[in-house]
Design a protein that fits this description.
alpha+beta, Sulfite Oxidase, Chain A, domain 2, five-stranded mixed beta sheet, 21% strand, binds ligand MTE, binds molybdenum atom
Length: 309
């Protein structure tokens, strides 16, 4: 295992251009205008088919995805991440993998991703605050990484942590969250093929405000589970503490599966507002497991999801 930073292998080299043209061709009007400037440089790279796991829905614009989101390390406003994330140093970057694994270590970003097959995954996204988007991520299955480092038999959960660097993350000067931001998955959730580590968005490396250089995406769960700018992945034998559950356990459970029949104590989860104007605007019914019920419902057989929320 080589953990050393290789100056000749930059993270942009291991983040491929996605497979975007086919989708762009079927879009019209505002969507096509929004996407056209992104597609040009990627043209030569278009080779493979989109992932079988992608939704057919047309993605939100890059502007929607990068200018309206949550990343509390940069402040609590929806525009704070796009305003303040520019100063985050993402190269070099390394991720500690520890706990119940055969090959623990500090993995340089480029080494971590270089053997993992990258795909474009166009996923539905739903925030617990009841807004939603369609996002074209580029990433690889977390299972591939976990298999590479070797999960030991006693491991039952995966815990994740975000970088702590208050000099570059002004939101961390406020102690309302006990930094680092933490998240976790049960091992079977982590090994599910829908669970990916994203390193790209549209045809470029993932922008800082969206969790550069590497973040989790779990599309059937509320957005807060999809932790950004990860620096530590630990295989553990007990359910790990998670940021929103630590802050307010009655409102945010460990599982956080998108579920229109289990309301947040302060608001309904039955519908959602699709961010964006024109084609993408409007309110719609929220789907069980965010539309991924066929793929993931079996993970929760026998569990009462009003208890395990
Ligand atoms: N480290 C970290 N990860 C985070 C958050 C955060 O504040 N800090 N916010 C979460 C929440 S609440 C949401 S809705 C998504 C939003 O970001 P995205 O649109 O880029 O997915 O990031 C999630 N991941
Ligand atoms: Mo969220």
């Amino acid at each position: 295992m080589s953990n050393r930073w290789k100056p000749d292998l930059k993270w942009s080299d291991v983040t491929p251009k996605p497979l975007w043209l086919n989708r762009r061709q079927i879009m019209t009007g505002a969507a096509a205008l929004a996407a056209a400037p992104l597609a040009g440089p990627a043209r030569a790279q278009l080779a493979a088919a989109p992932s079988q796991y992608s939704t057919d829905e047309a993605p939100n614009s890059l502007e929607d995805i990068t200018a309206y989101n949550n990343f509390y390390e940069f402040g609590t406003g929806k525009e704070d991440p796009s305003r303040y994330a520019d100063g985050l140093t993402i190269d070099p970057w390394s991720v500690v993998i520890d706990g119940l694994v055969d090959k623990p270590g500090t993995y340089d970003f480029a080494d971590l991703v270089k053997d993992q097959p990258l795909e474009e995954r166009i996923y539905r996204f739903r925030c617990v605050e009841a807004w939603s988007m369609i996002v074209p991520w580029v990433g690889f299955e977390l299972a591939g990484l976990l298999n590479r480092v070797g999960v030991q038999p006693g491991a039952k959960f995966v815990a994740f942590e975000t970088l702590v660097r208050p000099d570059e993350m002004p939101g961390q000067k406020s102690p309302f969250i006990e930094w680092p931001y933490r998240e976790g998955l049960r091992l079977d959730e982590a090994m599910h093929p829908l669970t990916i580590m994203a390193t790209g968005l549209y045809d470029a490396p993932i922008p800082r405000q969206n969790g550069a250089p590497i973040r989790l995406i779990v599309p059937w769960k509320y957005g807060f589970k999809s932790i950004k700018s990860i620096v530590r992945i630990s295989l553990v034998d007990t359910m790990p503490p998670t940021t929103w559950n630590m802050l307010q356990p009655s409102e945010y459970g460990f599982y956080a599966n998108v579920n229109p029949t289990v309301d947040h104590p302060r608001w309904s989860q039955a519908s959602e507002r699709r961010v964006g104007s024109g084609l993408f605007g409007g309110r719609q019914d929220t789907l069980m497991f965010n539309g991924y019920e066929a793929e993931v419902a079996s993970l929760y057989a026998g569990q009462d999801l009003s208890v395990d929320y």
